[in-house]
Design goal:
Distance between the termini: 55 Å
Mean pLDDT: 87
CATH topology of the largest domain: Alkaline Phosphatase, subunit A
Strand content: 5-15%
Low-confidence stretches: 1-22, 158-165, 401-428
Largest sheet: 9 strands, mixed
Length: 558
């Protein structure tokens, strides 16, 4: 069922055309989370029409071959705003904190007199993650209480289980908030970032005959964009603003066996739209640019158009003067969450090389869907790109190792028996790391278990997770979720055993420490429960649920 829009009449008529006519031009940056470029009619899609998004190309430029630097929300937006590589800025997962002092597009524009505001639709860009730097207003009403470095998940208080999340707000609320802010800052230089999370699963609009659920959801988002552009046109701001529409990453939708994103680095999740609607009057621009580029290049392009020098920290280059340079992308998710090999890729011109235990090479001009691996047929091209990749990474010093907390000898022996040589989600395996391509059946089992958990079928989830662990006992994420299922099923002895292993391997994981404390509590092991709940509360000082449980335990033991 199509949802209704609720718009304030005064918001739609927020300002006169003169309000937008002053220089420098307003800058509006719109990110539609999880939007595949090849599902837009502006990029040649035929199953549905996306007229409101396509309208950005009227008097604008479609950048046909732009890739994200990593197919996860927070890392991708961090590369977008800081114009740095994920391995350089250190944000390679959703549950990592952007360090203070980051040089961001918003910060640069603020220094040059812009009023800056962001309106956020998804929790992974919540203010607490640190990407609010440079924004005077940062509207993100999620306020999670804890996060997991093991899985990239964020946890909220006020619920029975720390595994449940509230992760979004509808774009029908995000866009009017941005419009109201623009109304209060007319006649001023403004930079507005709008993040829409509506296209991310789970979908709220059902598919229909001939239209997939993803496309049905995209039609809803296209309607949201139409309401935004209508408001800008009524205010006279559409023609006067530099308006940029893009996505942080795509969606697998079954291509190469990947349903979501973050697992592989194929074009289904890396290729993103970038459509820039130029303000009028401005110098004529090409209607389309075919030269490959990255989201890392968007901030330098905006600054170039505004004649503002890009800071030295920015690694990207302007897309206004396209040049042939490598485009780098990566995913660490399979490595961090499952202990499998990371995937890195580099594109130069038509060719794309994927660095993996079994590397791959594709000619994207002839084979845009990456069906034909030509590495054996063209090993010389693979060597060239492998060298480019090594050269790019070698330009940056390796990140400083994080000191590992002490682990008792018994836990150390247990971890070693399961194949681990260290602790934490980025531990080294005892032997070569598996290629994610070879672990795809195991990953599909894990995805099925998540569906069972999300739909309150814990017994089914247990069966599936046990199958995953039978194939790979080192899969800490599967073990954590199995422990959570045991806890929900009141199988406290089994939950305690699983959580104990997890806290030894990942001592800074909130959900594991909390889960072990709860299992100990139900088993009457008060001292141990208090110890682990104290550890959980130390990891997440604002987790009200943890504090309540710890306070109740202390009162009961005093």
């Amino acid at each position: 069922m199509q949802r209704l829009f609720f718009w304030s009449p005064t918001a739609l008529c927020l300002a006169s055309a003169a309000a937008f006519a002053a220089t420098p031009p307003p800058v509006i940056l719109i990110s539609i989370d999880t939007l595949r470029a090849d599902h837009l009619s502006a990029y040649g899609y035929r199953d549905i029409k996306t007229p409101n998004i396509d309208a950005f190309a009227n008097g604008g430029t479609v950048f046909a071959n732009v890739s994200c630097q990593t197919p996860l929300t927070l890392p991708s937006h961090t590369s977008l705003f800081t114009s740095t590589y994920p391995f350089e800025n250190g944000i390679q997962e959703n549950a990592e904190l952007v360090p203070p002092g980051a040089v961001t597009l918003a910060g640069v524009l603020k220094v040059h007199g812009y009023h800056t505001a962001a309106f956020i639709g998804g929790v992974f860009l919540e203010r607490q993650m640190g990407l609010d730097q440079g924004f005077e207003t940062y509207d993100s009403p999620f306020n999670f209480e804890a996060f997991s470095p093991l899985s990239g998940e964020l946890f909220f208080g006020g619920v029975e289980s720390p595994f449940l999340v509230r992760d979004r707000r509808d774009g029908a609320l995000v866009i009017p908030a941005a419009i109201r802010w623009l109304a209060t800052h007319r006649n001023q230089p403004t930079f507005v970032f709008i993040h829409l999370f509506d296209l991310h699963t789970p979908y709220t609009n059902p598919g229909r005959k001939g239209v997939s659920r993803y496309d049905a959801q995209l039609l809803y988002v296209d309607g949201l964009i139409g309401k935004l552009t209508q408001a800008l046109k009524q205010a006279g701001g559409w023609d006067q603003s530099l308006t940029v529409l893009l996505s942080d990453h795509g969606e697998g939708l079954g291509d190469h066996g990947e349903t979501a994103h973050g697992y592989f680095v194929y074009q289904s999740t890396l290729h993103v739209p970038l459509i820039v609607h130029w303000p009028a009057p401005s110098a004529p621009r090409p209607s389309a640019v075919q030269q490959p580029g990255g989201l890392i290049d968007v901030a330098p392009t905006i600054l170039d158009f505004l004649h503002i020098p890009a800071p030295a920290a920015f690694e990207g280059t302007t897309l206004l003067n396209p040049s042939s340079r490598p485009v780098y992308s990566e995913t660490m998710h399979t490595h961090d969450s499952f202990g499998w090999s990371p995937l890195r890729t580099i594109r130069l011109g038509a060719y794309k090389y994927i660095d993996a235990p079994r590397p791959e090479l594709y000619n994207l001009e002839k084979d845009p869907n990456e069906k034909n691996d030509i590495l054996r047929a063209d090993p010389s091209e693979a060597r060239v790109l492998r060298g480019e990749l090594a050269h790019l990474i070698s330009r940056y010093p390796p990140p400083k190792p994080v000191p590992e907390p002490g682990v008792n000898p018994q836990a150390q022996r247990l971890l070693a028996s399961l194949g681990y040589l260290g602790q934490g989600p980025r531990s080294r395996r005892n032997g070569p790391e598996p290629d994610p391509k070879d672990r795809l059946p195991e990953y599909r089992l894990y995805e099925q278990s998540m569906d069972a958990i999300n739909n309150n079928r814990p017994n089914e989830a247990v069966r599936l997770l046990q199958k995953v662990l039978a194939q790979d006992a080192t899969n800490l994420l599967a073990r954590r979720d199995l422990a959570g299922c045991y806890l929900d099923l009141h199988a406290y002895v089994k939950a305690r055993a699983a959580f104990a292993l997890l806290t030894a391997a990942v001592p800074d994981d909130y959900s594991s420490q909390f889960g072990l404390g709860m299992a100990d509590k139900h088993l009457g092991l008060t001292g141990e429960a208090r110890q682990h709940l104290e550890a959980a509360c130390k990891i997440a000082p604002h987790a009200a649920q943890c504090r309540r449980e710890l306070d109740a335990l202390r009162q009961g033991t005093n």
